[in-house]
Amino acid sequence: MTQPDKTGMPSWLPRAMMLAVWTVIGFAVAGWLFFQLRGLLVLLLISLFLALALEPAVNWLHRHRWPRGLATGAVMLAALGVLAVFVSVLGSMLVGQVLEFAAQIPAMSRALLSWVNTTFNADFQPEILLAELTDVSGQFNQWASSAAENAWGAGTALLLLLFNGLTVALFTFYLTADGPRFRRTICSVLPPRTQSEVLRAWEIAIDKTGGYIYSRALLALISTAAHFAALVVLDVDYAFALALWVGVLSQFIPTVGTYIGGALPVVVALIGGPFPALWMLVFITVYQQFENYVLQPRITARTLDMHPAVAFGAVLAGAAVLGAPGALLALPAGASLQAFLSVYIKRYEVAEHPLLEGTEEEQRTGGEPAADGAEPAVGRPAAEAGEGAADGAGEGADGGPAEKAGKAAGGA
């Protein structure tokens, strides 16, 4: 039993008080450092996910005797080229198209009101509405002029964006090119069993993040080609830029991206008249159904196809935590987390109940559409159900399976 000192205070109390004080100081310093370095931490997080997305392509080139640094540089240059094409083509179209559309709003409104009065035997007076619309178009021009005059602020923002982009590119290059060495360094301070679990989680993250990004990129390419053909047939200006806009937004922004991306081509087609806009709207609707029920299940069969509600909630959560970067990182992060948890969550046979009745396909696969030839996971422990996911992740980051990678790291 602890004996009190002459003042009646237990001997352990001063040490406990000092430990509490140092704990509070430690948390305060850590919080201050996190607040000061939050920008750098966000850039590191973005770089990590970009490295996970690029690593499958880098590993493929490395297995075909490319040096890892050269393979990383080639993949990054290809991705940067695609991004540059998207931004330059879309940027050159956006400002001119918005100003042209704003200038034609009064004429379009006059024609629309004339059609409504003729068709429905109405007597709407266009003067007040046209005055308001003229003010709106004038406001558009005023905003464009003020944005052009504020060149200093735009230049500062551009320099900051360029610096952050170079920082992300540098971290992404080293995390991808030196990925095996980085993982070996981390595993060298962990016990062998923990090394195996860390490498398994890393392998799942690489496979699911890369698979999700590449499947979405393929869907975006198909969507761009289809919408480009439709826009050319309807003789809509800036067909390639609009098709690229629809393809990218509809795939990388879940649920609402389709409507945001499809609204711009409809508005631009409206400049040529109501019928091109109507046909464009019909095409977007029909293609979306074709993509949801035909293309997407086949292309994403071997990757993680998240439920639209889950994907939308993940984007909202990511935006609430990290803003715009969090919204972009939410989908690959959620896909990796869902795949990793599926390895360890144990599942049981589900009893029959009227509330669980669905389509025959859902009943056969246990509630989730299975890939062709895949065995339902219901009734199997997660260790067995996730075994296929872990093994299906392909080769490890160094070109070997996760088990071999774990053994290699254990001997590091």
From TrEMBL:
Main localization is: membrane
Q: Where in the cell is it found?
A: Cell membrane
Coiled-coil spans are none
* Topology with respect to the bilayer: Multi-pass membrane protein
- Report biased composition (Gly residues) as residue ranges: 389-399
Renumbered to this chain, the Low complexity biased-composition regions fall at: 366-388
Where do Basic and acidic residues bias regions lie?
A: 356-365
Q: What segment(s) does the record annotate as region Disordered? A: 356-412
Q: Read off the InterPro entries from this record.
A: AI-2E-like
Q: Give GO BP annotations, semicolon-separated.
A: transmembrane transport
**Protein name, entry field:** Putative PurR-regulated permease PerM
Q: Species name for this entry?
A: Nocardiopsis composta
Its organism's taxonomic lineage begins at: Bacteria, Bacillati, Actinomycetota, Actinomycetes, Streptosporangiales
